[in-house]
Design a protein that fits this description.
- The complex is a heterotrimer of chains A (290), B (158) and C (762).
- Chain A is α+β, with helices and mostly antiparallel strands.
- Chain A contains 12 helices and 14 strands.
- Chain A has 2 domains: 2-167, 2-Layer Sandwich (Uridine Diphospho-n-acetylenolpyruvylglucosamine Reductase, domain 3), CATH 3.30.465.10; 174-284, 2-Layer Sandwich (Enolase-like, domain 1).
- Chain A has a 5-stranded antiparallel β-sheet with strand order 4-5-10-6-7. In chain A, strands 11-12-13-14 form a 4-stranded antiparallel β-sheet.
- Chain A is globular, with a radius of gyration of 19 Å.
- Chain B has 2 domains: 2-78, Roll (Ubiquitin-like (UB roll)), CATH 3.10.20; 87-154, Orthogonal Bundle (DNA polymerase, domain 1), CATH 1.10.150.
- Chain B contains 5 helices and 5 strands; from the N terminus they run E-E-H-E-E-E-H-H-H-H.
- In chain B, a hairpin with a 2-residue loop joins strand 1 and strand 2 (12-19).
- In chain B, helix 2 crosses helix 5 and helix 3 (104-117) packs across helix 4 (123-130).
- Chain B is globular, with a radius of gyration of 15 Å.
- Chain C is 27% helix and 24% strand.
- Chain C contains 19 helices and 30 strands.
- In chain C, helix 6 packs across helix 7 (265-276).
- The two termini of chain C are 51 Å apart.
- In chain C, 63% of the residues are buried.
- Classes of the chains: A alpha+beta (290), B alpha+beta (158), C alpha+beta (762).
- The interface between A and B is medium-sized, with 27 and 29 residues.
Chain lengths: 290, 158, 762
Amino acid sequence: MEYFEPKTLSDALALLAQHGAEAKLIAGGTDVMVDIKFKEEPGSLVNIKKIPGLSGIKENGGGLSIGALTTIRELETNAILRDKLPVLWEAAHQFASLQVRNTATIGGNIGRASPSGETLAPLLVLDAKAKIAFTDGEKTEPFSSFFQGPGKTSMGTKGLLTAIEIPYPAAGSKGVYLKHAVRGAMDIAMVGVAVMLTPDSGKNQVQDVRIGLGAVAPTPLRAPKTEALLRGKPLTAALIKQAGALAASESSPISDQRSSAENRRWIVEALTRRGLEQTWKAATGKEVAS
Amino acid sequence: MSVTIHTTINGNAVSASAEASTSLLEFLRDTLEMKGSKLCCNTGECGACTVIYNGKPINTCVTMAADANGAEITTIEGLADGETLHPVQQAFIDTGAVQCGYCTPGFIMSVKSLLDRTTKPTAEDIEEAVSGNICRCTGYNKIVDAIHLAAARIAGRA
Amino acid sequence: MAKAEFKVIGTSPARMGGVERVIGKGVYGIDLMLKDQLHGAILRSQYAHAKIVSIDTSEAKALPGVHAVVTAADAPDVRYGRSYIDRYILARHKVRFMGDPVAAVAADTPAIAKQALKKIKVVYEPLPVLIDQEDAMRPDAPTLHDDMPLPKNLPEGVKVKNVCGFATVRVGDAEKAMAEADIVVDEVYETKMIHPQYLEPRIAAAQVEPNGRLTVWANAQAPFPVRQEVAKMLGLPLNNVRVISAELGGGFGGKGSGITSGAAVEPICALLAIKAKRPVMIVLDKAEETISTTIRSGAKMYIKTGVKKDGAIVARIGKVIYDAGGYSGFGVQAGGRCTNMLGGWYLMPNCHIDGYTVYTNKQVCGPVRGPGGPQAAFAVESHMDSIAARLGMDPAEFRLKNIPKAGDKIVGVPKLRDVSLGETIRIAKEKIGWGNVKLEKNQGIGMATGSWIESAGPGGGATIKINEDGSVTVHIGKIDMGTIPGFGIPLIVAEELGIPVSDVTVANVDTDASPWDAGTVGSRGILVSGTASRLAAIDARNQLFKMAARQLEASPEDLEIVDRQIRVRGTPSKSVSLATVATNAHTVIGEVIGRGYCDNLQLMAEEKAHGSSQPFTAHACIVEVSPDTGNVKILKYVAVHDIGQPIHKAAVEGQIEGATAMSIGQALCEQVVFDKDGRTMNPSFVDYLMPTINMMPRIETTLVEGYPGAGPYGAKGAGEIACVPPMACIANAIFNATGVRIKTLPLSPENVLRGLKEAGKA
C-alpha cells in the first residue's frame, strides 16, 4: 500500500486524479482503519489531515461554515453550533463513543455516505451544502443531491469535501435528531429521524417543517410528501398520526442483521411523531392539540 | 510502505518505523512491545485500547500510527508515579473493579481523562466518559464505585 | 468485616495480581511474545455444510515468508469430542459450519499469513444447510454426521435425525396428573445463540523444546484437558506435552478448550510449530471468534404445567430441543442440564420432560456460564408468571406456594438439606418494593428465581509450599480469569495459616507442576480448589506445628500462628518465627509441603446422606417500556443470592453482578444472527451488541446467609448462578408493564414492539 500525506489541497487533488479508484482518503480513520484491517488495503492511502484550513467552525453571515476535518467532538463542544443548529448538535451528541468522537470527522461521516450516518439526515433538514474541491476548481452542491447510494456521492473518486455550509434556520425554528438503537449512541442507528419545525408568527400553525430520515433507504432522504401534508396546518394529534404513517411510506428500508424492514417502518412512524411533538412543544410552548 | 514515527509516549521521545497501515495500537503493542493497551475488537467498539492522545481519550485500534508524529500520548504504563499508583489505578483495585482486568487499562485512561476535567462527575458525565468502554466481567457496579472513590480522593474528600 | 470466627474469610482485600493489571503489565496470553515466533492463521470453511473435494496448498506453501501449511492430511486421523467423538482439528471430508477450520499456515508476519490463507484453494461441494434445530431433527432432514449413531437411550419408535443426545426426566405419572389438573398452561419458549465474548481474544502458542518436548501456552480455562487433547490429536505421548497457562482476559466457559469439542486452536498451533520447526503463535480476532468458537446454544422449549385452583403445581410435561451446532461439543451435557432444569426447582410431584440435543450447521455449544440453565429458566420462570396470571395469583405468592422445604426433593436433586429459595424471594420482594412501589405508566415489575446444580463433577488437589521466609506458594489446577486464584484461594490459605493474604502466591498452572484439574468451570472453583487448598494449608500447618512443638516444648494442639510467629496459645512469649521453622525443614524433610484434595465421591456421599443445599436465587426488577419503539429500560434491579459463606465478598458480588449483566445482555441485545446459508451476519462488535454502561442499572446485590454449602467454610460456587434468572425477570416485568408475554429472546426493541403490535397495544 502506498501512503501519502499531502500538505496542500492541490497536492491531495493531484493524487486523487492520478490514482483514481485505487486511492482512498483517510481523515479520522474510525471507518477506514476498520476497512484496512478487516477487508482490503487500498492501493494508495491519502491522509488529508495535514492540509491546513479544513477544520474549524466559523460564522459566515447568516450561517456556519464547518471545515470537513472538524471532529465530531469539536461539533459537540461548540456552543454556537449547539445554540444555532441543535439538530446537528444532537447528532454529534449521539455519535458512537467519546473516543470515536474525538477522532472521527464530519467530512469522514459524509464521505462514507452510509445511509445510517448520524450527521446526514440533519444536514438534509438544514438544507446544508457541500463545498467540494476538484483539480479544475471548486463547486458547491446541496446535500439533497450529494448522496447517491450507499458509499456513493457526487464527489466520485476525484473530489475532496472541504467544508459544509449551513444557513441558520428561520427564527423560531426548533429541531431534534432522534436515533433508534438498542443500547444508545454506541450502536449504528437502526433508524434516524431529524425533524425541524418552524411555527408561524402566531405559533398556531406549521409554517415550515423538514423531516430527514436515515438508515431507511439507500441514501438519507427527506420526506417531502409528509412535509407537504404538514405545512400551513396546525399540528393536531390526528395530523401527527397521519404524518407518521406517511413518513413511513416514504421510506424504503431493507431487512438486515439490525432490524427487519417492517420494524424500521414502524420506527420511522414512531420517531416522526415524537419529533413533531417535541419540536412543536419546543417551538410553540404548547402540547399538541388532541 | 514504511513510515517513521517520532512521538512522545509517557513523556519519553520515541522513534520507530512501521508499515503505513499500522494502527497506533499495533505500534504500541507490536513495534514498541508496550502491552498495556489491549487488543480486543479492533473496530473502535470496546475501548480496551484507549489512550490519552493530545489530551483526549481515543481508540488506538482505529488511529493510524503515522498520525502520532508529533503527538503527546499517555498510556496506562505512564500513569503511576514510580511505585505510587495514580488514584484512579488505586481506586480500581480498592473497590474490586478489577476482575479479569482486561478492560481495566482502557477504563482507567477514560476515567483519568474524565477526572482531569471534573472531580464531581455526574451520572451523565460518567456515562459520556465510559459508554465506549465495555466490561464483560463486572456489570459495571464496582467500576462506578471506583470512579466515585477516585474522584473523592483526588479532590481530597476521602 | 470478617465474622468473629474468621480472620479474613468474608472480607474483600485487594485482588492478587491487581497491581499488574492496573499498570498495564502483559500478563495475558495475548501479550506473550516467543523468541523467533511465526504467526499462525486458520482458514475456515466458506460453507455451512459441504463436502471437501480437494485442498491445494501449493501456492500458499510457495509464498515467501510461509514456513508451514497444514491440513487434516498432516495430522493423525483422530477425532475429539466429549459425548460423541465427532470432530477433527482440521476438517476432513466435510465441513459442518462456517467457522470450521480447514487449513492453517505459519508465516513470518500476520500479513503474509493472511495472504497465504487466500492462496489455499479449497474445492467444496455444497450440501443443504440446516439452521433450525427443530428442522434438523425431522426424519427427512439431510444427515450431518453419517457415522454418528443416534443415542442409545432414545425412546422406542421415535423417528429423528441428527440427534446426538437424549435426556429425560420422569417423576410420577405426568400425563395422568395433567389430566386431573384444574388449570393447564401450555407454552413454547425460545432462546437464541449468544457468544460469551470474553474481551481477550483466544490465543495459542507452541514450540518444540531442545529435548523434543512440546510446550504449549494457552489462555484456556482447562490446561490439563488441553494437554490431553494436544497429545491425542497429534499422537504424542502425554508426558511430552507441557501446557503453561497464561492469565485470562475473561473466559466464561467459552475458553474451555479440551473440555468440549469446541475450538481446538492449541493442537492446530502445535501442529504448525512441529511442521515449521519454529515457535508459532495464533491470535484469533474477535470477529473470527464469533463465527468459530464455542457459544451458548439456543433452545426451543415446550412447557406445559397443570395446577390446582389453589396454585399447587401437580404436573409438568415438556420437551427441549437443544442446538448442539455442527459438532456435539458440550451440547449433550448442556442439553441434559436444560432438560432437567425445565422441571424447575419447585415441588414437582409429576414430571415428564424429554430433551433432544440436535446437530445443526452452526457454531458449537460450549460450557458457557451456566450451560443450559439460563435457557431453561427463561422458560420456567416466564411460564410461572403465565400460570399465576391464569390463576389470578400474585406471581411471588404463586412461587412461595410451591417452595420445597428441607428434606423434599426437586427435579435433579433427590434430597434438599435446606431451602433458601423462600427467603431469597421474600428479600427480593422487600428490596424491589413488591406490592408497594408506585409504578408510572408503561412501567412494570417482575421477578424470577433460579437454582444451579454444582456439586456434580471431578475432584481436584492442591499443594502448598512453605518458603523459607514463611511466605507460601500454592499450586492448584485452576486458572485466573478474575476467579479464585486472585481472590478466594489466598484468603483461605491465609485464614488457615494465620499469615497475611499478601504472603500467599498462587502459581500459574503448569501441567508439569500443578495438580490435575478439570479447569475453571462449572462454579467449582471454590468448591474443589478451595476445599483442596484449605486441607493443604491445614496439612502444612500440622507439619509446621509438629516441628515447632519440639522447639517450643509444647504440644502441637496448643500452637497458633500470629504475625508470622508460631507461638503457644496464651503464652505469646514462647514463640519461634514461621520463617525459622520453614527454613529448619531443609535439614529434616527438605520443605514443608501441604497436600490436600477435594474428594468428589465423599462430597457425593455426604449429599446423598444429608441432602444438598442449592445456591438458590431470586432477582427482581422494574422496567419501563416505550410503547412506540419497544425500547426497554431497566430502572431498578435487585439480585438476592444464597452462595453460602462468601469467601472473598467483593469477588462473589462481582461474579453475581457480572453474570447478571451477561444475561441482561442476552435478554436485551445479544444474539448471533444468521442468514439462510448459515453465515453469521454480526460477527464483530459493531453489530454483536453487549451491554454498555448507559443501559445497565445498578445491580443491588444481597447475600443470604445461613445455608452452608459443600465448599470450604460453607461456601457455594458463585460464578454462574446469576446468569439464570435475568431473562425471565425482565420478560416478566415487561408482561407486567404491557400485558404482553414475549416468548422468544432477545427482548429487543423489535421483538417487544412486534409483540405489542400483535396484541393490539401499539
